[in-house]
């Protein structure tokens, strides 16, 4: 399997999640989804000030947060658990013909660099006839945005097989703007053999930390 980032094997025998892993690995549908929200007010105003895409910015913040939570870096490969040293993302892009395209955005540490490359890729993909554009390995987060309406929950479409690598699935809804806050609805799907609700909590904490730095 071709991947972008290096990885290390996590031995299942003796692993702290061994019993949990073996239990959920038997499920025909082991993914669980949590529907919540994030206050992105500092990030939103930073983007408006610096003329950056808000949607690209919250995707970038999501990847930064996920990179800091070990369970978001775990994948299933040939019945084994591996941990990747990094993550990029693949998101849906709405093309000019109103069909979607799954599109890879390379990760950059700096938001401005990420937005610059992602915007250029988006402009090209909008004209494309292809469904898949760019790298589509397992060392990614899968993302989609539904900006047209309020999001109260989301279940992702996927073809589950015993070989499913357990890539996290992130969905975003329409921004909710109030007098003093900007709220981002977010749906997160994780493979239960690799993560629990506590790790979702760690991710949301990490996401808040990333967002708050734009208010300083």
TrEMBL record:
<dbReference type="InterPro" id="IPR001707">
    <property type="entry name" value="Cmp_AcTrfase"/>
</dbReference>
<keyword id="KW-0808">Transferase</keyword>
<protein>
    <submittedName>
        <fullName>Chloramphenicol acetyltransferase</fullName>
    </submittedName>
</protein>
<dbReference type="Pfam" id="PF00302">
    <property type="entry name" value="CAT"/>
</dbReference>
<dbReference type="InterPro" id="IPR023213">
    <property type="entry name" value="CAT-like_dom_sf"/>
</dbReference>
<dbReference type="GO" id="GO:0008811">
    <property type="term" value="F:chloramphenicol O-acetyltransferase activity"/>
</dbReference>
């Amino acid at each position: 399997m071709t991947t972008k980032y290096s990885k290390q094997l996590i031995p299942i025998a003796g692993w702290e999640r061994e019993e949990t892993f073996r239990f959920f690995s038997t499920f025909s549908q082991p993914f669980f989804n949590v529907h919540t929200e994030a206050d992105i007010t500092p990030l939103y105003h930073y983007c408006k000030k610096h003329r950056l895409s808000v949607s690209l910015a919250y995707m970038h913040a999501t990847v930064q947060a996920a990179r800091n939570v070990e369970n978001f870096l775990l994948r299933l490969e040939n019945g084994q658990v591996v941990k990747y040293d990094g993550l990029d993302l693949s998101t849906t892009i709405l093309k000019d013909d109103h069909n979607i395209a799954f599109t890879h955005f390379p990760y950059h540490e700096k938001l401005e660099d990420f937005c610059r490359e992602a915007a250029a890729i988006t402009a090209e993909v909008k004209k494309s006839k292809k469904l898949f554009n760019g790298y589509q390995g397992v060392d990614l987060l899968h993302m989609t945005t539904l900006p047209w309406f309020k999001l109260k929950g989301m279940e992702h479409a996927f073809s589950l097989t015993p070989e499913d690598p357990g890539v996290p699935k992130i969905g975003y809804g329409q921004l909710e703007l109030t007098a003093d806050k900007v709220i981002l609805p977010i749906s997160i799907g994780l493979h239960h053999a690799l993560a629990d609700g506590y790790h979702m909590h760690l991710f949301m904490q990490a996401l808040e930390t990333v967002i708050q730095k734009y208010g300083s």
